[in-house]
Design a protein that fits this description.
Blueprint (H helix, E strand, L loop, with lengths): L6 E7 L5 E6 L7 H6 L5 E6 L6 E13 L10 E5 L3 H6 L9 E5 L4 E2 L5 E4 L8 E2 L2 E7 L15 E8 L2 E2 H4 L15 E2 L4 E2 L1 H4 L6 E6 L2 E7 L7 H8 L10 E3 L21 E6 L3 E9 L1
Parallel strand pairs: 5-17, 7-13, 8-19
Antiparallel strand pairs: 1-2, 1-4, 1-14, 2-3, 3-4, 5-6, 9-12, 10-11, 10-17, 15-16, 15-18, 18-19
Length: 287
């Protein structure tokens, strides 16, 4: 059975203290992350089933805490794109790539919105911890060798992500999986928006705000490789499993490229907002 939700959240309910899936009213709460931060009461209609087949019921629960829309255990793998915005390539003084630049994060990188914090391990507390606001999607059905013309049919929903990166470690190695794959380095959420409700994923404003200052401000119009192209490319000769999370790249303004540089320090506030999806808010915690 196909799911019938449009704005899904995973949350802890005030009524029973347990995690649930729910549908929020996007007219009342167009940005669930901000609504939660502002202390507004958020009601969610209980969803029976999983994120893949869930059906919205009439029963309402009150959100006590917002969680990531898919758990680390449910996530098969996190596939990520580097250098996928034209304006970011210009910022980095790098040529536009001919094919997608790819790396992965393990499922243990998945975490959620505030009050969950982004932990920075001691060995990378070196003044190079960085943010990357990204449009993120979840694959809803397994496929292989997916034609680009059918690729968007495999998208379960879109959410907000932050590719937390340890730059000193990244620049020591040509492979980025370690420096970008630390525990809880891929916070996502809180809202998962269905493709039918979102519309065109290639025309969304993307902003990252660090301690109240806008540090990234672009649009998915700047994507070098479209969502459909990315899915088709990733599925060539490779099974793209249900539950795969794809982070689609970051726009310009990353801390390492700014002058002066911007670093994620202990207790910093970092948030990513994407038009028609919402805001992912986290604090930074130095372990």
């Amino acid at each position: 059975m196909a799911p019938n939700w449009t704005h899904l959240v995973r949350f802890i309910a005030k009524e029973d203290g347990l995690p649930h899936l729910g549908q929020i009213d996007a007219k009342l709460h167009p940005d669930a992350g901000l609504s939660w931060e502002q202390g507004k009461e958020i009601k969610a209609k209980l969803i029976r089933g999983s994120i893949y087949d869930g059906q919205v019921t009439s029963k309402e629960l009150t959100v006590s805490q917002l969680l990531e829309p898919i758990t680390a255990e449910q996530t098969r793998i996190v596939r990520c794109l580097g250098l996928n915005y034209r304006d970011h390539a210009k910022e980095a003084n790098m040529p536009i790539p001919d094919v997608p630049v790819l790396f992965i994060k393990p499922n243990t990188a998945i975490s959620g919105p505030a009050p969950q914090k982004v932990p920075i391990p001691k060995f990378v507390q070196d003044g190079t911890s960085d943010y990357e606001g990204e449009l993120t999607l979840i694959i809803g059905k397994t496929g292989k060798d997916i034609p680009e013309s059918e690729a968007l049919d495999y998208v379960l929903g879109y959410t907000v992500g932050n590719d937390i990166s340890a730059r000193a470690q990244q620049f020591k190695n040509s492979q980025w999986c370690f420096s970008k794959g630390l525990d809880a380095s891929a916070p996502i959420g809180p809202t998962l928006v269905s493709p039918s409700a979102l519309g065109d994923p290639g025309n969304l404003k993307v902003r990252t705000i660090h301690n109240g200052n806008v540090v990234q401000d672009s649009s998915t119009k700047e994507l070098i490789f479209t969502i459909a192209h990315v899915i088709a490319f990733l599925s060539q000769g490779t099974t793209l499993e249900q539950g795969t999370v794809i982070m689609t790249g970051t726009p310009p303004g990353i801390g390492a490229m700014r002058n002066p540089k911007v670093v994620l320090n202990h207790d910093d506030d970092i948030r990513v907002e994407i038009e028609n999806i919402g805001t992912l808010i986290n604090k930074i915690y130095y372990e």
